[in-house]
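Changelog note: in this version the structure field was regenerated for every chain. One regenerated record is shown below for reference.
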Amino acid sequence: MSEREDQPTSETSSEREQSGANPFAERDETGEQPQNTFSKKRAAAMGTAFGLGMTLLALICIALSFALSTCTA
């Protein structure tokens, strides 16, 4: 046994591409990638809205926990 198991074997690029493909993934017959690009301004607005929403949710949870703790005390 001259070849060790941990040594990388030389593969051609087509073999590498074929072995790396997920056989369970759905294939798109048209070959087009979906377009989901946002402008920087829109991405910043969405990130800000998400952050403010999470902050509001955290404040509601804190207020609810204080309210429940005072009712059960």
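Spot check on this record: DSSP finds two helices and no strands in the chain. The chain has a mean pLDDT of 78.
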